[in-house]
Amino acid sequence: MLHEIHESRLLSPRSFQAGLLDSTYENVLEHIDCGVMLFDEEGVLTFVNARAYGMLEIQRYTLAGCTVVDLLTHLSLSRIKKRQLLHIYRETVYKGKTMYEFMDEYGRYWEVNASFGAGMNGSYLFTFKEISDYKKIEQTAYQNDNLAMLGKLSASIAHEIRNPLTAIRGFIQLLRPHLQGLGKEEYAKIILAEIDRANDIIHEFLSSSKPSSPQAGIISISALLKEVILLTESEVLMKGCQIVLNAIAGELYISVDVKQIKQVLINMIRNALEAISDRLDDTTGRIELGAYREGGEVRIIVSDNGKGMDVCTMSHLFNQFFTTKENGTGLGLSVSDRIIKNHGGRISVSSRINEGTSFVISLPLTPGFTA
Fold it and tell me: Which parts of the chain have pLDDT scores under 50?
């Protein structure tokens, strides 16, 4: 039937729609969700539908009577489009492949199917279908498989490293009195500190590869924030900073894994301390904690007057292994983000260079426990 289509009508500069093509088949080809291009045995384009010339981004009437060579040198066709068509020609007509995939200049994926051979009497039929959604699903599945494999591998390696570290730590503790006698106790302190740092990194890797499920318990926001301040206050004061809990209107309750949420808040406070210490002026460091109700959610705010961040840094902030710290692992905020998402919440951030940063944690309020 497609051979009959191209024999029954040739395209003219006046109109691609005029001719002897049966209106029913023409209407079908014109409105299907893929581009259609038909070349006769002499390489002349005899049919193209709206989807196809829209993809080429040129006017339909300019394609009238074009051969393959004319199309590849078309004045209205962009250089990128010409290159893409040349690749399609090489892969299908020249190499004889019936299917070819490519990505256009807009990042969209297309699948080209070519029909030719004895049954086509020398004609070539090309159909173009966008497969961007399928590609995204395929890439996501591939990435998830790789991440799952990497997570298992990381957990296995971390466990294997942790065992000898525990043994080394024990032997250093036994040797400590002898090092004291030699006046080298500082060596023992350095070794123990480095072992503890290595264990902290391993713990972050394990948390990242396999975060535990939340063990929910109801707690008031004010009580939660007061506990976090008690846990971090000495560290904050030692660095010459202040930590302040702003007044909270009413009593707000959330159902969360308290240990995990504390981990998130403490991590943010420690990040704030580092941001404050990186400032080049003599501004007194200040960290503020607060919370307020917004509809059915509570917004917990952790803000500082540290060095701030640029837009580029903020865009990568929650990516695994992304860090701006010399000795950072890039796991703290990615783990925090995953913990909050596991609780049905989200984290947002705003920042200005040399002015400070604010993190906002949004979590669902517990019904019946709001004052």
Answer: 1-21, 370-371
CA distances from 48 to 2, 92, 133 (A): 12, 18, 24
Question: Residue 60 has which token pair?
Answer: 């339909």
CA distance 66 to 56: 14
Contact 261, 295 (CB under 8 A): no
Q: Measure the CA–CA gap between 56 and 69, rounded to whole angstroms.
A: 15
Type of residue at 272:
A
Helices 258-277, 221-238: crossing angle, 10 deg rounding: 30
To the nearest 10°, the Cα dihedral for 189, 190, 194, 199? 0
For the segment 237-267, what is each residue's pLDDT rounded down to a tens digit? 888 899 999 988 888 889 888 888 888 898 8
SS3 288: strand
Same domain, 35 and 119: yes
Residues 39 and 120 in one domain: yes
Amino acid identity for residue 26 in this structure: E
Same domain, yes or no: 191 and 97: no
Residue 128, SS3 per DSSP? strand
For the domain that residue 230 is a member of, what is the CATH number? 3.30.565.10
Q: What is the CA radius of gyration of the chain?
A: 32
> Could you tell me the CATH number of the domain that includes residue 29?
3.30.450.20
Shared domain for 120 and 241, answered yes or no, is: no
Q: Is 71:45 a contact under the CB 8 Å cutoff?
A: yes
Is there a domain that residue 137 lies in? no
Asked whether residue 194 is domain-assigned, the answer is yes
What is the C-alpha to C-alpha distance for residues 35 and 113, in angstroms, rounded to an integer?
A: 10
Domain that holds residue 300: 217-364
Q: Which amino acid is it at 230?
A: L
Name the burial class of residue 7, with classes exposed (0-12), middle (13-18) and buried (19+) by CB atoms within 10 angstroms of its CB: middle
C-beta atoms surrounding 336 within 10 Å: 24
Output the six-digit token pair for 289.
Answer: 């904690």
Tens digit of pLDDT for each residue in 311-347? 888 877 777 666 666 666 566 788 888 889 888 899 9
> H or E segment at 212?
none
Considering only CA atoms, which of 251, 235, 254 is closest in space to residue 243? Answer: 235
What H or E segment, with its residue span, contains residue 50? helix 50-56
